[in-house]
Amino acid sequence: QVQLVQSGGGLAPPGGSLTLSCVASGLTFSSYAMGWFRRTPGKEREFVAAINWSGHSTYYTDFAKGRFTVSRDNAKSAVYLQMDSLRPEDTAVYYCVTSPGVQSVTDIVGRNDYDYWGQGTQVTVSA
Question: Which of 20, 32, 55, 89 has CA 20 to 30 A from 79's CA?
């Protein structure tokens, strides 16, 4: 069975940094583009970042540009989200996602449904 297991997150002060990890099993990881999105109560779901199957193409939503970095290590079946210069409005539950057949950034960005989900990781930015 396909599993996406997340780790990291937690509490950071404004201007601080956090790193999220997502390790996949039960699939051929290098065949999949990966995405990150976040949810906050009372707000619409927001896509954060995406990376293609090889790691050579990335996408960032405007609020993440210049602050967040998505990367992957196919040998470890892992995708990461490095978050710097954190703001209180970054507080949310963050999820890694993918679906069969998605290899490019455009294949995964903007989708409303995903076949495979991480369990979610809470990120709280507060002094």
Answer: 89
- Cα separations in angstroms, 51 against 2, 6, 80: 19, 16, 10
How many H helices and E strands in the chain?
A: 1, 11
CA dihedral sign, ordered 48, 52, 56, 57: negative
Residue the block writes with tokens 């050579």: 56
Structure confidence at residue 111 (pLDDT)? 84
- Helical ranges in 1-121 per DSSP H: 105-108
Nearest to 17 by CA among 69, 79, 72, 85: 85
- Tens-digit pLDDT profile for residues 29-88: 999 999 999 999 888 889 999 999 999 999 999 999 999 999 999 999 999 999 999 999
Tokens of 123: 């990120």
> For 23, phi and psi rounded to 5 degrees?
-110, 125
Going by pLDDT thresholds of 50, 70 and 90, the confidence category of residue 12 is: very high
